[in-house]
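Sample pair:
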Amino acid sequence: MQLIDTHVHINFKELASDLEGIRQRWQEAGVVRLVHSCVHPGEFQEIQEIANQVPELSFAVGLHPLDAKLWNSTSAQIITQLAESDDRVVAIGEMGLDFYKADNREQQIQVFTEQLEIAYRLHKPVIIHCREAAETMIPLLRQFWQQRGKVSGVMHCWGGTPDEQQEFLKLGLYISFSGTVTFKNAIAIQECARLVPSDRILIETDCPFLAPVPQRGKRNEPAFVRHVAETVARLRDISLETLSQQTTDNACQLFQLSVIS
């Protein structure tokens, strides 16, 4: 059985100080590939250095919506240059809108749109963060698709409703479930996990955040993506092996990854 954790932050100090140990544990859990998301281009060299030690790690480059205030006249050029500088860059992100923790809506929309443009020009998928912002994001994406063209990508750490999920699926996006799907009161997320088509589902940890049950409250790490997989498989009434194959195939398709059988 092979698993791919499609969203990690292992450069954060909670994990970087224990890289050898967490790598051994994810290998024991069956994790064969990981996608490291970037919250600011300034992390890029640090993530590269980790990838030099961890050949199964691919990564993205982008600016998180909660850092939108850091965007300036050279940001798009910097992200573009970094994305083109290393063939291990498989996506642009993490990017998006977060109206839960910040109210600079117009600034976030501008930064998000400019990063969509980078992804479109480079033919790379996007890793999208969307928190309390689906009502704005859905028409924004629809307009971009119509005026510029479609961009592939994933709604990471899905936390929306089944109706919102359906709109993002119509736009051709994947839906990725994190440890939140294991939480007792995550009724809407669990319903989404039941409904998403098998060719659009991904799994992730978003570590070091949101550790899944039964590890909730602990530092999250890539090995725990197996708990996410087990919960999603149970919700969909399929075997863990089937779910792992579906999500691994989907991650390879979206991010152009390969795994050794």
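The chain has ten helices and eight strands.
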